[in-house]
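Request:
Um, any thoughts?
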Amino acid sequence: MIERLFSVEGKVAVVTGGTRGIGFMIAQGFAQAGARVIVASRDADACKEAAKTLGGPGHCIGIPADLSTEDGARALAAAVAAHEPAVDILVNNAGANWGAPIEEFPDSGWDKVFDLNLKGVFHTTVKFLPALRQRATAEDPARVINIGSIDGIQVPSLETYAYSACKAGLHHMTRVLAGRLARDNVTVNCVAPGPFQSKMMAKTLEDFGEHIVAANPRGRIGTPEDMAGTAIFLASRAGAYVTGAVLPVDGGAATTR
């Protein structure tokens, strides 16, 4: 019973930004749990390497994609359809950040971050809807898992104005999409990670890691198992009745202080 409750075996999962960081943690968790995983990244070499690394009990392929444009999202959906006509899980993880002092924050920074982190998530979800609807049922809906951030819940200490604003927007867009797609048997949820070891967080952890760990109620940063377990819960039978939720995975950093 418990094994079936948390099983994603045989499901098809697409993870954008799945070649490193949080995306790779999720892709690895799905692959080790027996899902067939497709990772997407702008870096073709990184896609090949990730696919090779993740080829465990399920199987994995990598597809290069730039999801900052609608055409890029359309191209990824078409490329995935050539391998898998139905998709059970879409993880919208691809993202970018930009930091600059308030008087110097450029318009190009807003465009880069919003085009990928917010508009890109919308376009990618829309382009994958036909594949997500194919096998979705009331008992076993298709799943969209957006990757937000605790910086969309709390005020960040760094000057990342576009990033925190777009993540807050993504949290609410998750709720809007969840309401729109519930009758199509597609759930839409959002994971809001706190500090995890990733390329985006590398410099911050290098400079402030000890302070971040000391300030965290759990006294540590997140591990790959923390992120993989959350995604597997949302993608399995255990999470089939959850939609429109924003789930902080941060050791209590944004919600208990």
Observations:
- The mean pLDDT is 93.
- DSSP finds eight helices and seven strands in the chain.
